[in-house]
Structure to design on (630 residues):
């Protein structure tokens, strides 16, 4: 409370108040101008920033200056000297310290009144409840794996009522930024409403890989020599050690081997920084791209938090190679997405066995002809695997167990696989109360 | 569209209702997809699969191939599969755990199979890779060598290659390298 006094010097929030205290033609649904909105933003709203690198530094600065009062930041990395040209919250003497910690400290020092809580760890180390605690999650990441992980976490929060209507309060909005050289994107993900990462996985280009035999026999580029040292030589010569890309000695060894190989094949261009780039799959970072993308992401976060303007729908691409080009596309949700879709609602008797339940699915008109020998899993558990025989044997005992025993009191989502299905079928199992269900059905039928 | 400002109270109530619920293991998209691949796996009599971490870890498994024709007849070769969490966007990582004298597999177990790297496509599956591995034993290829020596012998002197393979399978030295018996 006291901190807010120092943060609210006269005129500081004038621009923000223009947005929050006035009506407009493009405000979001349900927006009513009121001073309480700024209080909400500063006192109650909690935003999580994932990543404190190039995008993360920009995001933290932008969000703090936009009036967000409570920001958490999570990043597992420590500061490297090569970060300093664009990750402007860090200084030479910070090298080696955790990015999250230093970034939080710096932002709090420069922007009065904001609280930034750092988390120096991997995103997988936090329990799901940690992520549930935030109103919105803003991503400044460079890895598809990390995006995919956080996507599966927030999609697992979604709850639907009995008739399949999404409970809007279980939506955890995400704003995602990404940059690659002079190109970038900003997107808004409302899980269950707009496409999730998995719905549009094809937007991410596959990693370039070289054939191993080319690396071994006919290298033609500096990257070939580096990948040879990385994928083949390390295993041959340092058998007992696990390669660590963050260990300078390992990286130096890799560089030296690659250089020798390049000389052997008369290839020029192997440098230490290229070695780092190839091995760590580093994409060249441009400070201005980060700034532009982070600004767009922060603005979207502000819109979602306050509804002062209708939000982006739902993907903005930016190309800065020749002038400035942006284009916003409304991508569509994959209705059968294995991560964010509701699945087909099925009512079952809590006491029926898994075997009976599977027969019920096979008999269900909605899947007619699509199921013959289904396999069923729930969360991390393979309840029944029709093949291969070794797994069938290991899971067979579940066939005689009851659904309530396998899924818990409330039922839940099960994934069904079958040869005849093109993809994974998600089924939302709700237990029908044997005693009251027929009456409810009668009433519905009569009305 | 949602209005977080008006939903604030509701979310707090929902959060309290969730407290005390045991945490659940989350499945990555890769896990969901590999479940499908594996549930549909039809293995030939020369191939078997094991799950070292039990029935609920399908991201790590081993495929054993016992060729019944070609140079490698009678041998037993174990491959470890490691499935990335963003499978099938990325190919599985496959290593040969059995030391083998083979032009397309080096002595560290790296395998030169196009669909494991440059030609991987998300429409391919675990099944496609197993076919690919079986094919490597039926038709070792001297054009894509990872074991340079073996490739040269196969190209220049197939009879010598055949006897080298026999020696390696029985547990012996070929070209200064010892191969443990795998017959
Ligand atoms: Zn989705």
């Amino acid at each position: 409370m006291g901190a807010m006094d120092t943060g609210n010097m006269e005129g500081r929030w004038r621009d923000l108040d223009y947005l929050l205290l006035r009506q407009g033609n493009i405000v979001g649904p349900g927006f009513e101008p009121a001073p309480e909105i700024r209080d909400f933003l500063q006192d109650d709203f909690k935003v999580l920033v994932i990543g404190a690198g190039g995008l993360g530094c920009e995001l933290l600065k932008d969000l703090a200056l936009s009036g967000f009062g409570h920001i958490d930041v999570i990043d597992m990395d420590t500061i490297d000297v090569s970060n300093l040209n664009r990750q402007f919250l860090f200084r030479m003497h910070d090298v080696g310290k955790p990015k999250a910690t230093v970034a939080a400290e710096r932002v709090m020092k420069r922007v009065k009144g904001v609280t930034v809580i750092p988390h120096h760890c991997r995103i997988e180390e936090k329990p799901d409840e940690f992520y549930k605690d935030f109103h919105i999650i803003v991503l400044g990441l460079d890895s598809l794996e990390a995006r995919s992980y956080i996507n599966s976490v927030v999609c697992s929060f979604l709850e639907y009522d009995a008739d399949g209507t999404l409970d809007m309060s279980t939506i955890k909005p995400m704003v995602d930024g990404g940059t690659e050289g002079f190109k970038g994107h900003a997107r808004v993900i409302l899980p269950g409403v707009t496409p999730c990462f998995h719905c549009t996985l094809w937007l991410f280009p596959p990693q370039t890989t070289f054939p191993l035999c080319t690396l071994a026999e006919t290298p033609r580029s500096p990257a070939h020599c580096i990948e040879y040292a990385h994928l083949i030589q390390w295993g041959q010569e340092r058998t007992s050690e696990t390669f660590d890309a963050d260990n300078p000695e390992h990286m130096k060894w890799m560089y030296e081997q690659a250089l020798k190989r390049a000389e052997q094949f008369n290839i020029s261009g192997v440098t230490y920084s290229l070695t780092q780039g190839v091995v760590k799959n580093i994409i060249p970072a441009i400070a201005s791209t980060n700034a532009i993308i982070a600004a767009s992401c922060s603005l979207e976060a502000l819109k979602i938090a306050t509804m002062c303007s209708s939000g982006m729908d739902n993907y903005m691409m930016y190309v800065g190679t020749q002038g400035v080009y942006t284009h916003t596309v409304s991508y569509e949700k994959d209705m059968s997405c294995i991560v964010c879709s509701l699945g087909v609602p099925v009512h079952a008797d809590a006491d029926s066995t898994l075997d009976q339940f599977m027969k019920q699915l096979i008999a269900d008109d909605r899947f007619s002809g699509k199921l013959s020998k289904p396999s069923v899993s729930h969360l991390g558990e393979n309840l029944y695997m029709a093949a291969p025989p070794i797994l069938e044997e290991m899971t067979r005992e579940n066939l005689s167990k009851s659904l309530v025993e396998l899924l818990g009191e409330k039922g839940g989502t099960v994934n069904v696989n079958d040869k005849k299905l093109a993809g994974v079928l998600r089924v939302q199992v709700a237990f029908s109360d044997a005693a009251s269900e027929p009456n409810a059905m009668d009433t519905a039928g009569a009305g | 569209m949602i209005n977080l400002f008006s939903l604030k109270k509701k979310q707090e109530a929902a959060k309290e209702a969730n407290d005390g619920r045991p945490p659940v293991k989350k499945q990555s998209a890769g896990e969901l997809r590999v479940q499908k691949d594996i549930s549909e796996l039809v293995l030939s009599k020369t191939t078997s699969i094991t799950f070292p971490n039990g029935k609920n870890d399908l991201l790590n498994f081993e495929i054993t191939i016992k060729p019944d024709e070609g140079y490698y007849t009678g041998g037993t070769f174990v491959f470890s599969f490691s499935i990335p969490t963003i499978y099938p966007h990325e190919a599985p990582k496959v290593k040969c755990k059995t030391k083998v004298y083979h032009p397309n597999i080096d002595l560290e177990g790296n395998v030169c199979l196009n669909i494991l790297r440059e030609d991987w496509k998300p429409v391919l599956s675990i099944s496609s890779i197993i076919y690919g591995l079986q094919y490597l034993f039926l038709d070792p290829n001297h054009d894509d060598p990872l074991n340079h020596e073996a490739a040269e012998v196969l190209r220049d002197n197939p009879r010598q290659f055949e006897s080298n393979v026999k020696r390696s399978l029985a547990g012996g030295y070929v070209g200064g390298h010892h191969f443990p018996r795998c017959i």
Chain B has one domain: 27-178.
